[in-house]
Structures are given as C-alpha cells and as structure tokens.
Design a protein that fits this description.
With 180 residues, the chain is α+β, with helices and mostly antiparallel strands. It has helices at 2-31, 128-136, 171-178, and strands spanning 35-39, 45-49, 59-65, 70-75, 88-97, 104-112, 123-124, 146-154, 160-168. A six-stranded mixed β-sheet has the order 2-3-9-8-5-6, with no helix packed on it.
C-alpha cells in the first residue's frame, strides 16, 4: 500500500510538471510580436509625447525621424506560427495636446492595411501630402506636446499590437541631434 501511494505521488508530480512546462512554452511563443521595424535613418533615442489620457501628460521612449524617413518590416524568427506579413497593418498617428491642455487628440496620418506591406520594400512613414498638410497646421514637427506613434497590428490567429513612438524633426535638427 505504501509503495502504491509513492508511485501515485511520483506519477502526479510528473504529470503536473509536464503540464506546467508546456503551458509556459506556449505563453512564450504567443506573446512575442513577430515583426520589428528598421528605419532608414540612424537610430537616435528621444523622449516622445505620447498623449494626455488623464490628469497627466505621458511621455515614452522613442526615436527621432524626419518626414522623409522610410521603414522596412523585419520578420522575427521567434514569432507565433502562422504569422504572415500579409496579415500586418501599420497605422501612423499624430498625437497632440488639445487647446485647453486637458487631454490629447490622435489623428491617423498614414495607414497601411493588411496586404499592403512586404519584407522586401521600404515604406514612407508619412506621404508628402500629409507632411505638407501637417506643416500648414504647424503640427509636422514634434515638441513637448506633439508627437507621432506608429502601431503595428498582427491580424493573424492571435491579434497582437506593438507601438513605436516617433519624434518628428527637420533634417537640420536631426543632424544636430546626431552630432551631439
């Protein structure tokens, strides 16, 4: 009887350990976002305005870009199975403080829908028309209350999002930042 009880305990421990290991492995593969971005400019870290959702202004770590900056989609090998670039969409939004400084607005300035992207080509962050429109409204360049966010959404089996924060600056300002 005693030996039978020990065998049951050992068998239960083995089954529990197997279930725990397989569930941790599944969580790790599902949580990884399958794509990253490579920009055609030198990577310059910047603090970016990320909105005003409540009682406080939010800033996030991001990178400096110019209106002419392009990006390329890179596939990660550790992404979930079944991920294909045709299921990826990208939204570039302008985020800026409202007039009474009680919140923020978000405007979509460029949208790449599912099927628009691939792993071979470069894509512009914003179009020339969008840049001209934003410049005429004095909203093209980032400051302490204006910024951009670029959201990647993988629409395959499990919908996942990843957001990049961007500090848009002129070519001259970008060069000054690069030489600091």
């Amino acid at each position: 009887m005693f030996i039978k009880g020990i065998k049951i305990l050992i068998l239960s421990a083995i089954v529990s350990a197997t279930a725990a290991v397989s569930s941790f492995a599944a969580v790790g593969s599902v949580s990884a976002f399958p794509y990253s971005l490579e920009f055609d400019v030198e990577s310059l870290d910047r603090v970016c305005y990320a909105g005003h959702p409540g009682n406080t202004v939010v800033y996030k770590d991001g990178i400096a870009v110019t209106p002419d900056t392009s990006f390329r989609i890179e596939s990660k090998s550790n992404g979930p199975e079944g991920s294909e670039v045709k299921d990826l969409s990208v939204t570039v939004s302008l985020v800026y403080e409202n007039n009474d400084h009680s919140g923020s607005y978000k405007e979509v300035v460029k949208q790449y829908d599912k099927g628009d992207l691939n792993l071979e080509d470069d894509f512009r962050i914003i179009s020339d028309n969008a840049a001209a429109s934003l410049e005429s409204r004095d909203k093209l360049y980032s400051d302490s209350l204006t910024g951009f966010e670029m959201t990647l959404q993988n629409n395959s089996r499990d919908i996942k999002k990843k957001t990049y924060y961007l500090y848009m600056c002129s070519d001259d300002d970008f060069d000054k930042l690069a030489n600091q």
